[in-house]
């Protein structure tokens, strides 16, 4: 007995376990088959599933499941990222809650806590992906700090160092005063804030009452000023060229310099230059050989170089310095000001630009082949609009700060000699001892060497991901890497296009001399209906697991994809997964209907034969459309193709046409063909809705153990006739108009009616048997004139009449005809506008112009017929 309602939870648990037991997700090298491979964008090991993950992984699963159905050897490699700063921040917070400070622990002691945290939390998000239906090859699960990936990172660092691409130097970095580490640009989140713009005046050196006024949002940094800069084209400051001014409170004399970088319209037109604490000031300072005065400690407090407020936090100083400046006569005014302030993504503290000794990787040489690959479409970006963004980044690439002042991560493989800044770069301590002897001629023990305290940026491991997941760094000629690389598709968000994807492309060309993937599909951002990015902090993001529990995984997957165009933001609302769940119910009800039919050895009715022939042709065209949509990564459109195909065409038309009368049996031929077409529909739906399609597939007919829809063969497009399909569409409109007349005139469907058709070769005669069944029409008669005393309508220039059951309200008929006439006239006007446009007629393809001329002829015929009917009503 088939349950009345589909139970997603039971079905999902049952079939996911079935897929795992039969190892349908697992892929091994098979040179007889074409590989299809995706590597997962590794989520943070500390993470839990959020709406962005849901969208991203649903799209990946759709692509992988479709590839399997197409007979490809599909391999989706899962894994997690150690996420150095995020994980370390969580571990530090956990220890603090237990009364333990990181500074009181040794590195090894801290790492024990970090590994314990990782082992406890690291698998959560992967288990949650299973609830979504993700068909990853879990046997291949990787972690960026497992043995193979860690060894790969160290090997690449040493290789790049030996090639002269890695160096150590003092540069301006984003500094996180809470985590006390440099962070990458992508780990900085900019927030719009209501700030203050402080106008401060600096006395001109050698004068008593001449000043130059600057405007700043960070008055505490004046203690590190090295110059004041003006635009050489600014007439207001011409007289100050070559002069000096005095920094308030500390009375340091600094030069007034000129540089066209200064915006004459902003603030006062004069800019204070603090090379140690602003990236743009650093560039100007370097260009003009200015002194660099670093006034901040690593924790954001002021140091001895500031001379004043030493040991106080930067924001405390911001409040305390203003009264001092006012007292000294240097405060001119304070204005309200809106600006964007950079925050550390992980610790949520304001980033401080800071000069710091760090390790850097030269990027220009690595960037060139990666730029060419995208610009010449060897790697296709979808949507293509991001090519310009990519090109700009790659043409303006800067050296990558790869070091982080953290303990959780890949420790930099640099070993320093005792009491010295001399070092060697080595795979391990034993190799380091050997290199010290070779390079410096010193015999020392491993205990005497000191390894660099810093870790590598998280992205330094993830940029190797498509290679390292197949162990292609340590064993560059192994069977897996040679078979699966390059991978096919990469699905990710555009916010990390440069920071991760571009770097993977660079690594691919550096270490495989080949692109890492062929297609790069960029999703949009999941936003709420107010267009705000969904996030926990805003409280506008539902828990994905709660959504799956409520609407089922299939319902949520459909909801996510209903409004997720490539690169376009997804405006999420809970009505979307609800719509997905309702569609699941629609599929289940169709299954129940078909399964409850009694089958008998009867002759196949003509209407069933025609309907099945139509739907088979319709489905063939659908398959062709789907192939194009998938080739162009129009995933949402592909879903809508099968969604409407099932809901409107299969369920609402085909099943209704062939459905036998109450308690009547259906003929065997129709039943068999219907089951066959139902299975094809399920195969097309499966990538989007894996669970319910498997449930129904297994129950539509007997299956052997080990059979599954996910490893069945996707049906290929077959022949179809557009004229046949168009005629069927015309027939559907005729039936819809007959039903409307029944409804408007309260004629029950059980009451038979007659149909009169004014002779016209556009009448869908071949489908007359379907019109009769679906309209409950006892007879159809061709006539040459208008039928008086009948309800009428026009479809595709053909006039139809239904002899009235009772009296006809001529005023209602006239009003309807006049409305139809107005619409047809308006449509004709729009067509004639196109045809009167010479550019359109001469420039459009011949078939497009011919279609417009056909529309013109049809509209004119329809207008003539309606006008004739109106005349006869008089």
Description:
By secondary structure, the protein is an alpha/beta fold. Among the domains are: 8-158 and 462-523, Rossmann fold, CATH 3.40.50.620; 193-351, Alpha-Beta Complex (Isoleucyl-tRNA Synthetase, domain 2); 744-873, Helix Hairpins (Orthogonal Bundle). The protein is built from 27 helices and 31 strands. A hairpin with a 4-residue loop joins strand 5 (166-176) and strand 6. Helix 16 crosses helix 17 (553-561), helix 17 packs across helix 18 and helix 20 runs antiparallel to helix 21 (668-685). The longest helix is centred in the last third of the chain and has 28 residues, at 846-873. The mean pLDDT is 93.
Question: TL;DR?
Answer:
This protein has 874 residues and is an alpha/beta fold. It contains 27 helices and 31 strands.
Name of the level-1 CATH class of the domain at 8-158 and 462-523: Alpha Beta
- Separate helix tally: 27
Low-confidence parts, pLDDT < 50 over ≥5 residues?
none
What percent of the residues sit in helical stretches (DSSP H or I)? 40-55%
- What is the level-2 CATH architecture name of the domain at 8-158 and 462-523? 3-Layer(aba) Sandwich
Give the averaged pLDDT, no decimals.
93
Largest sheet data:
7 strands, mixed
In the CATH hierarchy, what is the superfamily of the domain at 8-158 and 462-523?
HUPs
Silhouette: globular
- According to DSSP, the number of beta strands is 31
């Amino acid at each position: 007995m088939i349950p009345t309602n589909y139970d997603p939870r039971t079905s999902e648990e049952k079939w996911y376990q079935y897929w795992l037991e039969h190892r349908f997700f697992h892929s091994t090298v098979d040179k007889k088959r074409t590989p299809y491979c995706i590597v997962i964008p590794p989520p943070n090991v500390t993470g839990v599933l959020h709406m962005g993950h849901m969208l991203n992984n649903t799209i990946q699963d759709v692509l992988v499941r479709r590839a399997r159905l197409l007979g490809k050897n599909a391999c989706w490699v899962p894994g997690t990222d150690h996420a150095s700063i995020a994980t370390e921040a969580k571990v530090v917070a956990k220890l603090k809650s237990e009364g333990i400070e990181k500074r009181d622990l040794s590195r090894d002691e801290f790492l024990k806590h970090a590994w314990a945290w990782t082992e406890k939390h690291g698998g959560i998000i992967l288990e949650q992906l299973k609830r979504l239906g993700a068909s990853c090859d879990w046997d291949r699960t990787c972690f960026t700090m497992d043995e193979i990936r860690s060894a790969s990172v160290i090997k690449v660092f040493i290789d790049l160092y030996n090639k002269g691409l890695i160096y150590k130097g003092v540069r301006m970095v984003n500094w996180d005063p809470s985590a006390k580490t440099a962070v990458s640009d992508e780990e900085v989140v900019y927030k719009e804030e209501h700030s203050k713009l402080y106008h401060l005046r600096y006395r001109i050196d050698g004068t008593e009452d001449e000043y130059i006024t600057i405007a700043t949002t960070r008055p505490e940094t004046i203690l590190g000023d090295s110059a004041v800069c003006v635009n050489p084209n600014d007439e207001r400051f011409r007289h100050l060229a070559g002069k000096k001014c005095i920094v308030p409170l500390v009375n340091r004399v600094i030069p007034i310099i000129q540089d066209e970088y200064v915006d004459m319209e902003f603030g006062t037109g004069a800019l204070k230059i603090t090379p140690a604490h602003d990236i743009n000031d650093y560039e100007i300072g370097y260009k003009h050989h200015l002194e660099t005065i670093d006034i901040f400690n690593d924790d954001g407090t002021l140091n001895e170089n500031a001379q004043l407020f030493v040991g106080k936090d930067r924001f405390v100083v911001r409040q305390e310095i203003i009264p001092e400046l006012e007292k000294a006569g240097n405060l001119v005014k304070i204005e309200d000001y809106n600006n964007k302030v950079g925050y550390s993504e992980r610790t949520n503290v304001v980033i401080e630009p800071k000069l710091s000794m760090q390790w850097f990787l030269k990027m220009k040489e690595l960037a060139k082949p990666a730029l060419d690959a995208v610009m010449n479409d060897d790697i296709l970006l979808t949507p293509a609009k991001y090519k310009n963004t990519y090109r700009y980044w790659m043409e303006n690439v800067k050296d990558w700060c790869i070091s982080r002042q953290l303990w959780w991560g890949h420790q930099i493989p640099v070993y320093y000699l005792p009491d010295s800044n001399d070092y060697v770069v080595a795979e391990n301590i034993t190799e380091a001892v050997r290199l010290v002897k070779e390079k410096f001629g010193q015999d020392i023990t491993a205990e005497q060497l000191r390894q660099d305290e810093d870790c590598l940026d998280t992205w330094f491991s993830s940029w190797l991901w498509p290679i390292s997941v197949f162990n292609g760094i340590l064993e560059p000629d192994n069977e897996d890497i040679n078979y699966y690389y390059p991978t096919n598709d990469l699905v990710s968000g555009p916010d990390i296009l440069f920071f991760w994807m571009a770097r993977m492309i660079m690594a691919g060309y550096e270490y495989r001399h080949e692109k890492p993937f062929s297609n790069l599909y960029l999703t949009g951002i999941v936003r709420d209906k107010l267009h705000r990015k969904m996030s926990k902090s805003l409280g506008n993001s539902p828990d994905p697991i709660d959504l799956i529990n409520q609407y089922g995984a299939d319902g949520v997957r459909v909801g996510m994809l209903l409004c997720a165009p490539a690169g376009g933001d997804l405006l999420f609302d809970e009505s979307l997964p609800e719509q997905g769940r309702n569609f699941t119910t629609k599929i289940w009800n169709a299954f129940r209907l078909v399964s409850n039919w009694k089958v008998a050895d009867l002759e196949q009715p003509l209407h069933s034969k025609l309907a099945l022939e139509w739907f088979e042709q319709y489905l063939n065209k659908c398959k062709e459309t789907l192939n194009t949509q998938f080739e162009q990564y129009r995933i949402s459109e592909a879903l809508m193709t099968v969604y409407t195909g099932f809901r409107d065409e299969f369920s609402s038309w085909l099943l209704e046409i062939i459905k036998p009368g109450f308690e009547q049996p259906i003929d065997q031929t129709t039943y068999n063909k219907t089951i066959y077409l139902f299975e094809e529909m399920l195969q097309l739906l499966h990538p989007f809705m894996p669970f319910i399609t498997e449930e129904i597939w297994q129950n539509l007919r007997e299956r052997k153990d080990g059979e599954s829809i996910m490893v069945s063969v996707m049906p290929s497009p077959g022949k179809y006739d557009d004229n046949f399909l168009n005629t069927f569409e015309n027939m559907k409109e005729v039936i819809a108009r007959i039903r409307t007349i029944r409804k408007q005139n309260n004629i029950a469907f059980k009451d038979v009616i007659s149909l009169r058709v004014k002779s016209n070769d556009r009448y869908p005669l071949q489908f007359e048997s379907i019109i009769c069944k679906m309209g409950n029409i006892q007879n159809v008669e061709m006539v040459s004139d208008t039928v008086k005393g009948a309800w009428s309508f026009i479809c595709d220039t053909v006039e139809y009449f239904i002899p009235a059951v009772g009296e006809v309200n001529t005023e209602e008929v006239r009003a309807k005809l006049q409305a139809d006439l107005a619409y047809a006239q308006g449509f004709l006007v729009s067509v004639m506008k196109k045809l009167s446009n010479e550019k359109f007629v001469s420039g459009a393809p011949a078939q497009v112009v011919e279609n417009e001329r056909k529309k013109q002829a049809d509209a004119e015929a329809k207008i003539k017929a309606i006008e004739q009917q109106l005349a006869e009503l008089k």
